[in-house]
Amino acid sequence: MAEQKDLKAGLILVADDDASFQKAFCEMLNLRGYEPVMASSRDEVRDFVRRRQFDLLILDLMWDYADYNGIDILCEVLQLDANLPVVMLTSKPSIRTAVEAIQLGAFDYLEKGSDREKTMVLVKNAAETGRLRRENAAFLKALCSKWEIVGASLATRSMLEHIRKIGPSDSVVLITGESGTGKFLVANQIHYHSARRQKEFVQVDLTSINASLAESELFGHCKGALTGAQDRPGLVARAEDGTLFLDEISSASPALQANLLHLLQQREYRRVGEDHWRPCNVRIIAATNQPLPELVGDGRFRRDLYYRLKVVEIVIPPLRERKEDIGFLAQHFMKVKSLNSGSHERNMTPEAQMLLLDYDWPGNVRQLENMIESIVVCSPEGDVTAETVRTVLGNLSSGTEIPFQSLQEMTRQFKRECVVKALTLTEWNVVRAARLLGIDRSHLHRLINEFQLVAGQD
Fold first, then answer.
1. Which residues lie below 8 Å from residue 232, measured CB to CB, with a gap of 6+?
2. Residues 267 and 335 reside in one and the same domain
3. Tens digit of each residue's pLDDT (9 = 90 or more) over 84-129
4. Dihedral through CA 432, CA 438, CA 441, CA 445, nearest 10?
């Protein structure tokens, strides 16, 4: 029996209130190597789908209950698990309703009393589809988590919400921000929130491509276009049906800017050496750490291309303007770097955390990540102390010029930083943080609301 169980072809939930039919159907599945599970009511179906991962649901269309039928159960199941294939069991008079079920998301329908071989072919195809859907969902989830955006500041939460809204569209996106703020990360998240996520995400760093070869790299070339060249598709072709990420778009030459404008306007391109246009279906995301409006004003960047790129713009604030994120980011990097190096995750002393919050991070998130990696790899085991942080960072002065602010604004900013530090050091224990700040708990709650601070991340 143990050997037979190891060979089970899939886990199938059979939902029907006809006990005799249900038993016979499950015996047939068992003989073919499947592991059937029986459900005799809507509540049982919902409970099983919540608790276990099935490869397939066989669902009767007609139930002897006045308040629900198979269509109602189907809609509830697909809300719980959109990847679960559902095959509807029907009698001949209910085939029209079965077609309606397919329009609502059912995989297929099966007449009761159908030929056994036909039934098993449908079951096999549906169960394999279920497994493939789960594997794809798990793969995409792993990819998405790999490029996870970590933080709890209002700016980060707003940015994540913006990504969730624009991801499903095909709109061109321009991402701006200082070096090291995470533009590549944001572009990845947009891609994995889109319908193109199963296709390629192709990154092009325009600063690393020789200007004379940029068009060939992007659009490809035909045989003889260059000395000794053979036919070669470019990165645009590789990104077909997916996303093309043009990093540091401000570095594009005037000729390349003209070709990119045509690509955006006409959705077509030409390989170098060709005289005909090729249609393309790619989503364009561009990024820059340069002020494009200034480059447009100086004549170094095309105004029409700028407005074509700026359909949707995401501005990533520097880390010094969202210090609530520092503790979450440090903890995240500590966990990831420790795991990658095979060492135990370590804690930071309150004094070390205070230094991180006091520093201006001119290199932004990338600098923080590199610092944590250096600590994990090079520093002694045990808690990470302030001395360790000083050693790794060197001179804590960022060297950045701070613009003049009014006394009221500086006071508000200082007050906010004190609240963030206290909450970070006490792991968001409001009672302890209020005691540390020397204020009562209700006053701290008012400050948390005023500064729109939250514990944890969305």
1. 216, 220, 221
2. no
3. 999 998 877 677 777 888 888 899 988 888 888 889 999 999 998 8
4. -100
